[in-house]
Amino acid sequence: KETLDKGLEKTKDSFFSKLGRAVVGKSTVDEEVLDEVENVLISSDVGVETTVKIIKRIEERVARDKYMGTDELDRILREEIAALLSTTNPGDTLQRDDFDVPADKKPYVIMVVGVNGVGKTTTIGKLAAQFHKRGKKVVLGAGDTFRAAAVDQLKLWGDRVGVPVISHGMNTDPSAVAFDAVKKATEIGADVVIIDTAGRLHTKVNLMNELTKIKRVMQKFTPDAPHEVLLVLDGSTGQNAFIQATEFTKATEVTALAITKLDGTAKGGVVIGISDQFKIPVKYIGVGEKIDDLQTFNKMEFVDSFFK
Ligand code: GDP
Questions:
Q1: Residues whose CB is less than 8 angstroms from the CB of residue 21 and which lie 6 or more positions away in sequence, other chains included
Q2: Is the predicted pLDDT of residue 87 greater than 60, yes or no?
Q3: Angle between helix 270-278 and helix 239-251 axes, rounded to 10 deg
Q4: pTM attached to this predicted model
Q5: What is the CB neighbour count within 10 angstroms for residue 255?
Q6: Does the Cβ of 118 fall within 6 Å of ligand 1?
Q7: Which positions in this protein are listed as binding GTP (predicted)?
Q8: Alpha carbon of 20 to ligand 1 centroid (Å)
Q9: DSSP of 171-234
Q10: ipTM given for this complex
């Protein structure tokens, strides 16, 4: 919780000071206050669609109750945000350090997608470390074969954590890497396989074909793989993260989100907007560069951190 609070400091500070300014000298929530709140939400990168939804819900409450004091605004915003997150995050019972995979799917296959630079490799490394720490047997697949650095970095993580990395080197077929990773995991009785993929958003069709092929080839070995398609987004890029989510959800069926770099940004509101707009659960958030700075997403804790 401490790491989370610290990680969201910038978002919180900016959100709070702006929210404070929005109600200064006002005792009731009127149209003017709501306009200000709208600006605060938009500037925290909650996204227009979700902001409009939140404001509408508050307006409805004001209309219904005939009155809302500005002293209640925090609590009500918190409730509305939590309500939005709850409809989209069935996994919210997760605790911050609740890293686990279903035991009945062995090996549990996680395919990781996202554009370069968002923190994909780091997230895979941190996840591997967390699973490994809890006694799970992990195999990594270096499927981002278009960047030598990605393969090397994943190998470094593998060495650091002490888990095998399946790699065929640069410019090889990523689906072959995925196949071999799943095969290796099955042979050694691993609990979880995490497969990196190339993060080029070149043309949509290429991306889609590439991801579809990786899936198809893996399925020759494990018919229900991948069990999870984890899209990594950089929270500090604000609206770009929304665009990437749009592109990737068109290219493949994304089942979970990891939103990174929330520590360096005041744009933490992306978590709320993206989760609401895409109806995909946020499973992990990154709030720093250290291994423990990847946390499982817990709605109530997140909302609490956001609101001080
Ligand atoms: P990739 O190209 O998507 O694989 O990105 P990398 O995993 O190489 O990460 C890019 C940079 O972002 C690295 O310097 C990471 O240490 C950094 N990074 C990743 N996640 C986080 C995070 O949650 N917080 C911060 N501050 N940095 C992060």
A1: 36
A2: no
A3: 30
A4: 0.92
A5: 16
A6: yes
A7: 114-121, 196-200, 260-263
A8: 32
A9: TS-HHHHHHHHHHHHHHTT-SEEEEE-----S-HHHHHHHHHHHHHHHHTTSTT--SEEEEEEE
A10: 0.97
